[in-house]
Design a protein that fits this description.
Elements (H helix, E strand, L loop, with lengths): L1 E4 L4 E8 L2 E8 L4 H15 L10 E3 L6 H15 L4
Parallel strand pairs: 1-4
Antiparallel strand pairs: 1-2, 2-3
């Protein structure tokens, strides 16, 4: 699973895949759209994983910053296209 929280200025990303668990805090400060995807890629790479190793996503849907929440949800929807 890849889990994303973009509801606040500090974004959180966690992975739990193939027995590997790790997380990252990102001081996004209203830059979620620019910082989340590279940080996910970095976290997966650090653990020797690929987006295709994932079969579940979790995203915080509130409460929090409306724009931050929209970015997190849109990012997960976009990542789901990797599996088509």
């Amino acid at each position: 699973m890849i889990a994303i929280c973009s509801a606040f200025k500090e974004a959180l990303i966690a992975v739990d895949l193939d027995g590997k668990r790790d997380f990252s805090k990102v001081e996004a400060n209203c830059g979620h759209s620019e910082k989340l995807l590279p940080e996910i890629a970095k976290l997966l790479d650090k653990n020797g994983l690929s987006i295709k190793d994932n079969n579940e996503f979790a995203v915080v849907i509130g409460p929090g910053s409306f724009t931050g929440l929209r970015i997190g949800i849109a990012l997960v929807k976009g990542l789901c296209t990797c599996f088509d």
